[in-house]
Amino acid sequence: MNTISGNLDKKINWSAMIMFALGFWLSGSFILDFVLIPSLSASGMMAEGGFASAGFVIFGIFNHIEVVCAAIVLTGFLVFSHHHNLSEKQERWSVIIASLLLIITLAYTYIFTPQMTSLGLNLNWLNPNTEMPSAMIPMHAFYWLLETIKFFGGAILLKWCYRNSCRIV
Questions:
Q1: Per-residue pLDDT for the chain (169 aa), expressed as one digit of tens each?
Q2: Is residue 32 situated within a structural domain?
Q3: Range of the domain at 99
Q4: Shortest CA distance to 25 belongs to which of 88, 71, 58, 56?
Q5: Number of folded domains in the chain?
Q6: Distance spanning both ends of the chain, measured CA to CA
Q7: What whole-number distance in Å separates Cα of residue 98 and Cα of residue 105?
Q8: Does 19 fall in a domain?
Q9: Is residue 13 in a domain?
Q10: Residue 66 in 3-state DSSP?
Q11: Contact 155/19 with Cβ under 8 angstroms?
Q12: Is the residue at 21 inside a domain?
């Protein structure tokens, strides 16, 4: 029984958890957005009929990982605001930005990925359409706007968390 209760005294290093989650999440997004998808596009795989379902699997898995990372980040900054680890202004803004990042990932998971997949599916096998549907263009623009917000918000949170972890207590 002593071994179980002895582990409860250890505190969680929220700065390390937040920095790991943000680093993993933002680097994964960067690789997906700027390496994987452009290379699939350049190789012509996006014009294939089965790409929409493959994209749904790739983005679906990554979107669920993003939700977990965003939840860890929001939880960490809620802990920081409870323990007053940051300045009052940073506490307020960090919770707002972390909540915004969680909302963005939920929108990707439950709105963008299913909608873009449904637009990309080719249901007419006799007459395959290799062009991108025109309804997808505004969705791509909004996706890139949200990605920009995600990268800037994540960078701000990463900077604040790094500064908090380097402060001598």
A1: 555 555 555 688 888 999 999 999 999 999 999 998 888 878 877 666 677 777 888 889 999 999 999 999 999 999 988 888 788 888 999 999 999 999 999 999 999 988 888 877 665 556 666 666 677 788 889 999 999 999 999 999 999 988 877 765 5
A2: no
A3: 49-122+131-169
A4: 71
A5: 1
A6: 33
A7: 11
A8: no
A9: no
A10: helix
A11: no
A12: no
